[in-house]
Amino acid sequence: MRAALDAARAAAAAGEVPVGAVVVRGGEVIAVAANAPRTLCDPTAHAEILALRAAATALARDRLEDCDLWVTLEPCAMCAGAIAHARIARLYYGADDMKGGAVEHGPRFFAQPTCHHRPELFAGIGATEAAALLRAFFAARR
Amino acid sequence: MRAALDAARAAAAAGEVPVGAVVVRGGEVIAVAANAPRTLCDPTAHAEILALRAAATALARDRLEDCDLWVTLEPCAMCAGAIAHARIARLYYGADDMKGGAVEHGPRFFAQPTCHHRPELFAGIGATEAAALLRAFFAARR
């Protein structure tokens, strides 16, 4: 989660909402990404999506069933869906997202009967620091 | 929807589940994409995601509020989330997807109170042809 928090700080420095994500396989970091929709002109460029895509490219396959994803914020519906498509084994996330989160809030994607893959879920990892980064980012823009 | 169905046929020819998507702005086609997760080694490479990304690149911005998306199959949670992030104005889709769909099935993403953008929805456009393509694809693989 340390690397994901560093990526979140890099996102903030680039003027993006500070969220970072890391894909890990057997203790090895396969991909690290920072949230970048504005920088990349890509509405799908959340940290999770970029990390999953980079990991899939690195491993030359579209399923990452032996990988875990670490992300500083509760994933949205788009990212939760991508995590299921990628068959991620374990999802570790930081701060809750009551507005846009789709794991414990809103559509609660992984709890839906139609969800075809549920990773093991670990919430609240590094949540205090992740939430502080988000609060500072939005406070500076008000 | 004609162009989206052609893209779905191209996906099938490449061994991918036949789904196609088109982004249109003011009657002009901005992007066309075929489903390609295996070909691209990218779990996020659904037709909708690829079309949204290509359109955002073409227009050099991450919000497509003046664009419509046409897709041959009911979007999944990942794609519905991406459609909301992109601020797509109107969503036209073909066949229902009772297993993976997230518009009228499963998480019913656009009906969630936490959904921050709902496009106008038009279902069942070209549904017969879109569903026939999917049935033929899966029948050939059984």
UniProtKB/TrEMBL annotation, chains A, B:
Record PROSITE patterns: CYT_DCMP_DEAMINASES_1 (PS00903), CYT_DCMP_DEAMINASES_2 (PS51747)
Residues given in the record as Zn(2+) binding sites: H46, C76, C79
Record keywords, A-Z: Hydrolase, Metal-binding, tRNA processing, Zinc
Entry EC no(s): 3.5.4.33
Enzyme class: hydrolase
Entry's cofactor comment: Binds 1 zinc ion per subunit.
Oligomer and partners: Homodimer.
Function: Catalyzes the deamination of adenosine to inosine at the wobble position 34 of tRNA(Arg2).
HAMAP family: tRNA_aden_deaminase
Name the record gives this protein: tRNA-specific adenosine deaminase
Species per Swiss-Prot/TrEMBL record: Sphingomonas endophytica
